[in-house]
């Protein structure tokens, strides 16, 4: 209604140390102890391990040096996917307005639930209690007027916390925080700002947009200027179909022979294409994602002539991208490889004449059926034997 002040009705719910928390939930011997998920590269760390300085994407050797008492466990992606689905069921039981943004976090709009469910803070309290009771995991919730500030609030409240930021205090709260709390400020941007003695969000807010764009570029400058004033008009979007599907795997520090990388890539494409077919989606753009030993990243993409969900078609494109990136991999070392298929449509596979491309749709369907009935490990490529498919990480919840 016109004239009424905006209310803090957006929740950002974020599971705490998700992979490590699932491991501690499922194995009582791990509770209260430092846990590292992943050996070569840290995929996740419990808060007990984080207290020793262990961080996600850190090399396993460094992590074990920082926390020699840590228990290292292999990732179990099936368990994490099941836990994610269970948590999202709680989200959807809370409000129909849920926007998932990763496997372990989502935005919820509870603005229309006041008469039936109470105030947003009451809803947030019940949400946290329900996730713990039904899924056995701790979850942190931030409540604010905008999506950006709700996410900031949950970050400040971690672990296992709840923080509400009333509209009348939001700028006081926001401006005291370090610049790294601004969405999109990573190491490079933070370094640029701190070199100019800009260390808090409040200092960013007091700068003119023109100055920020001169330092950071037009897009980043305008973005940070808006966020520093909590200007974020984005609504919680429900029902938006994914624009891409992908998976990734940490491979640890090398050396990694080319056949090993190709086998890893094949396993990832198998997983992604299977998920695409299950969802009735086909895509045109294949993207290869690489992370190097210096933590830098690159992506390489190829757009197909027509949408496809066929494993062979997608794998051929991904292999070509990998081959083109081999000089970079040799020079800089690789610690993570990922593949994603974008420009998705909902029409499924486009029919081709037999002469256009060999038809492997029957093989894909047969393999999908076997895996559906007997599990994803029931049939695999010979090159993947002994490697385990469980190391591939879905980029978004199913």
TrEMBL record:
InterPro entries for this protein: DNA/RNA_pol_sf, DNA_pol_Y-fam_lit_finger_sf, DNA_pol_Y-fam_little_finger, DNA_polymerase-Y, DNApol_IV, Rev_trsase/Diguanyl_cyclase, UmuC
Which reaction is catalysed here? DNA(n) + a 2'-deoxyribonucleoside 5'-triphosphate = DNA(n+1) + diphosphate
Q: Which Pfam families does the record match to this protein?
A: IMS (PF00817), IMS_C (PF11799)
Q: What does the UniProt keyword field contain?
A: Cytoplasm, DNA damage, DNA repair, DNA replication, DNA-binding, DNA-directed DNA polymerase, Magnesium, Metal-binding, Mutator protein, Nucleotidyltransferase, Transferase
User: Where are the catalytic residues?
Assistant: 105
What SUPFAM superfamilies does its record include?
DNA/RNA polymerases, Lesion bypass DNA polymerase (Y-family), little finger domain
Q: Any idea what this protein is called?
A: DNA polymerase IV
């Amino acid at each position: 209604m016109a004239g009424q002040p905006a209310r803090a009705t957006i929740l950002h719910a974020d599971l705490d140390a998700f992979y490590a928390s699932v491991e501690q939930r499922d194995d009582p011997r791990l509770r209260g102890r430092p846990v590292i998920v992943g050996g070569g590269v840290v995929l996740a760390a419990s808060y007990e391990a984080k207290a020793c300085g262990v961080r996600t994407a850190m090399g396993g050797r460094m992590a074990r040096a920082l926390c020699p008492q840590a228990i290292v466990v292999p990732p179990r992606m099936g368990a994490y996917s099941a836990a994610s689905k269970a948590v999202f069921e709680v989200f959807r039981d809370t409000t129909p307005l849920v926007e998932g943004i990763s496997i372990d976090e989502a935005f919820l709009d509870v603005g229309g639930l006041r008469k039936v469910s109470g105030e947003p803070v009451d809803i947030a309290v019940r949400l946290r209690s329900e996730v713990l009771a039904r899924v056995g995991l701790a979850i942190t919730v931030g409540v604010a007027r905008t999506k950006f500030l709700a996410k900031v609030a949950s970050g400040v409240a971690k672990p296992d916390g709840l923080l509400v930021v009333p509209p009348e205090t939001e700028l006081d709260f926001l401006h005291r925080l370090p610049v790294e709390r601004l969405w999109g400020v990573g190491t490079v941007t933070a370094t640029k700002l701190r070199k100019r003695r800009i260390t808090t969000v409040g200092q960013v807010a007091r700068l003119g947009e023109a100055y920020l764009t001169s330092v950071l570029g037009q897009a980043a400058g305008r973005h940070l200027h808006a966020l520093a004033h909590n200007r974020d008009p984005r609504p919680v979007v429900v029902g938006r179909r994914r624009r891409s599907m992908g998976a990734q795997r940490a491979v640890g520090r090398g050396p990694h022979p080319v056949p090993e990388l190709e086998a890893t890539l094949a396993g990832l494409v198998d997983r992604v294409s299977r998920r695409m077919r299950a969802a009735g989606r086909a895509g045109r753009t294949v993207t290869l994602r690489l992370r190097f030993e210096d933590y830098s990243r690159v992506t390489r993409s190829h757009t197909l002539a027509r949408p496809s969900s066929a494993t062979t078609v997608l794998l051929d494109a991904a292999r070509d991208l990998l081959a083109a990136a081999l000089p970079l991999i040799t020079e800089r070392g690789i610690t993570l490889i990922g593949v994603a298929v974008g420009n998705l449509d909902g029409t499924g596979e486009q029919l081709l004449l037999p002469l256009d491309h060999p038809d492997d749709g029957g093989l894909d369907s047969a393999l999908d059926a076997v895996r559906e009935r007997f599990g994803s490990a029931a049939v695999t490529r010979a090159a993947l034997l002994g490697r385990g498919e469980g190391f591939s990480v879905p980029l978004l919840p199913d």
